[in-house]
Amino acid sequence: MLKPTLLVFGLLVAFSYIGNTLAAGDVAAGKKKAGICIGCHGVAGISMIPTYPNLAGQKAGYTVKQLKAFRDKTRKDMAMSSMSESLTDEDIQNLAAYYASLK
Fold this sequence. Notes:
CATH architecture: Orthogonal Bundle
Radius of gyration: 16 Å
Largest sheet: none
CATH superfamily: Cytochrome c-like domain
């Protein structure tokens, strides 16, 4: 029988692996594309505007989900919907990888 701590550790490792592979992208390509994000979310993903979220260190899977929702208009925000409408799935994966890489 597995000890509860080993089971929890194993689950954490598995979920970490799954989360990282679901949103794999090219960090360098994401950095190049991030120029469209700088005005609101800051040069290094840290916003100087209190009402805009920081993106640095955000989990890639979450960023992918939100950008796709803005692009597909299932999540509404005038600025984000217009900024994301031209993003491809690959662009979104790359942006998510880039911001996740920032700590």
